[in-house]
Write a structure and sequence with these properties.
Elements: H1 4-17, H2 32-46, H3 56-77, H4 108-115, H5 117-125, H6 129-143, H7 146-162, H8 170-181, H9 186-193, H10 206-226
Helix pairs in contact: 1-3, 3-6, 7-8, 7-10, 8-10
């Protein structure tokens, strides 16, 4: 029976291999040595999940890798503006909610962020948050196999439909396929599904699309959690 203390030298060796991937020296309040200690504690708490009939190093390396991505994400985006995952975000600084059509303080969430978290983040990093968001996208794109990830989400949706779990419907699968696999525009998706709207300046079916995408997002978060990516 292997105990945590038996593999501590392996953990230290594997952690040191990731030092050249840190690249966060600009974050003055958190250094690589802090990261190492946090990961060691995380591995200690997760140690029972390692199947001891399998090699330890590959399992440990995956845990470290995922924790590195999680930490980079948290350091970059804990104070990111709320527009990042907002339904009304039209790309860049464009907004479909404000009268000005840009992301500004006409939105209460943006105003709250600009009065608090924006300054806090810029003080900590001494840099512009949007440039870090761009770098984070590059990190995530290089570290996550999105095709495999999307297939995992689709498989989970199909399984829930077939087993009648969580009242999952075929419409969620259709919206997932058209949005993420076929990359159709919202107007085209709504037309295919027969959605309409009587609201001005609203795309047909925007509420329904938002609802089903929220379900998809929750499934994605569950999968990432299982894989030890602790995405918010």
């Amino acid at each position: 029976m292997v105990v945590f203390e038996d593999v501590e030298p392996n953990i230290e060796k594997l952690l040191n291999r990731y030092k050249n991937k840190w690249n966060l020296d600009v974050i003055k309040h958190y250094e690589f040595e802090d990261f190492k200690q946090d990961v060691k504690l995380h591995i200690y708490l997760k140690f029972s999940k390692w199947k001891q009939e399998e090699p330890f190093d590959p399992w440990c390396s995956r845990v470290i890798h995922n924790q590195l991505i999680n930490k980079k994400r948290n350091l970059f985006t804990n104070h990111n503006k709320p527009c990042s995952d907002c339904y009304f975000n039209n790309g860049g600084n464009s907004c479909g909610f404000t009268k000005s059509k840009i992301q500004d303080e006409q939105c209460s969430k943006f105003k709250q962020w600009s009065l608090g978290k924006k300054n806090a983040y810029e003080i900590k990093t001494a840099s512009d948050i949007d440039s870090y968001a761009a770098e984070l996208n590059q990190i995530q794109n290089s570290e996550i196999d999105y095709e495999k990830f999307l297939n995992s989400i689709r498989k989970e949706i199909v399984d829930r439909i077939e087993n009648n779990k969580y009242k999952m419907t075929a419409t969620t699968l259709k919206i997932f396929d058209m949005t993420y696999m076929e990359k159709k525009e919202d107007k085209e998706i709504s037309k295919c599904l027969g959605y309409t709207t009587s609201e001005k300046n609203r795309n047909p079916g925007y509420r329904n699309l938002s609802l089903h995408r929220k379900i998809i997002k929750e499934i994605a978060k569950e999968i990432l959690k299982r894989e030890d990516y602790d995405f918010a």
